[in-house]
Amino acid sequence: MAPPMSASRFLDALKDEGVTVVEVGDWRHHNRNHKGPWGPVHGVMIHHTATSGSQRTVEICRDGYASLPGPLCHGVITKDGHVHLVGYGRANHAGLGDDDVLRAVIAEKALPADNEANTDGNRHFYGFECENRGNGEDPWPDAQLDAIERVSAAICRHHGWTHRSVIGHLEWQPGKIDPKGFTMKTMRERIEERLK
Ligand SMILES: [Zn+2]
């Protein structure tokens, strides 16, 4: 449990971890804070966008849709491994998820199955949307997986969290399948190794 980093600290943490960052517009002040609280933060959530085309994907994640206004995450990780910062603060990425999962993330224990949607995740998770069609066939380039590993490790390092504080949307909200194409178990092992 921790207050969120400042936007400047967040930016520095990513850069210190070797992430290639692209700042998009007034990302520091683009958020949904008027709709609810942001923090305390407990973890990092990874998503796929189910889109194709890097520029279009970044635009969608910044602006959102009429039914789901942006920002839809904090950073968009495109296939080239660049991390496009589109918002900071409360973002529409996690939705409602399972309070048992949140408790496990806070305790950094093994995750239970997500079978309830009763808890506001946008308040408690940093979120990264990754450019991928999400069909299980669209490849995940090494540069993109490396960036997922680095952004996650950067945040965990700042907050003193372990790899267990990083989850996929599919582990949070019943019915979600993202990210699809690699496993969160494998990604957590990579993050654990990086944090050693
Ligand atoms: Zn998602």
Give your account of this protein's structure.
The chain contains 5 helices and 8 strands; from the N terminus they run H-E-E-H-E-E-E-H-E-E-H-E-H. Helix 1 packs across helix 4 and helix 4 packs across helix 5. With 196 residues, it is α/β, with parallel strands linked by helices. The strands form 2 sheets. The chain has a 6-stranded mixed sheet with strand order 1-4-3-7-2-8, with helices on both faces. The chain has a two-stranded antiparallel ribbon with strand order 5-6. The chain has a single domain, classed as Peptidoglycan recognition protein-like (Lysozyme-like, 3-Layer(aba) Sandwich). Strand 3 (75-77) and strand 4 form a beta hairpin. The radius of gyration is 15 Å and the shape is globular. The structure holds zinc ion. This is N-acetylmuramoyl-L-alanine amidase. InterPro entries: Amidase/PGRP_sf (IPR036505), Amidase_domain (IPR002502).
Element layout with pairings:
Elements (H helix, E strand, L loop, with lengths): L6 H10 L4 E3 L19 E6 L5 H10 L11 E3 L5 E3 L10 E2 L1 H9 L11 E2 L4 E6 L11 H18 L6 E3 L15 H12 L1
Parallel strand pairs: 1-4, 2-7, 2-8, 3-7
Antiparallel strand pairs: 3-4, 5-6
The structure holds zinc ion.
> How many whole angstroms does the radius of gyration measure?
15 Å
| Total DSSP E strands | 8
Would you tell me which CATH topology applies? Lysozyme-like
In percent, how helical is the residue content?
Answer: 25-40%
The domain tally reads 1
The main β sheet shows up as: 6 strands, mixed
Q: Strand-residue fraction?
A: 5-15%
Distance between the termini: 21 Å
Look at the structure and give the CATH class. Answer: Alpha Beta
* Helix and strand pattern: HEEHEEEHEEHEH
Distinct helical segment count: 5
Strand-pairing-aware structural class: alpha/beta
Strand order of the largest sheet: 1-4-3-7-2-8
Mean pLDDT level: 97
Gross geometry: globular
Hetero groups in this structure are: zinc ion
- Any idea what the CATH architecture is? 3-Layer(aba) Sandwich
Ranges where pLDDT stays below 50 over 5 or more residues in a row are none
Protein name: N-acetylmuramoyl-L-alanine amidase
InterPro entries: Amidase/PGRP_sf (IPR036505), Amidase_domain (IPR002502)
Pfam family, one: Amidase_2
Organism: Streptomyces rectiviolaceus
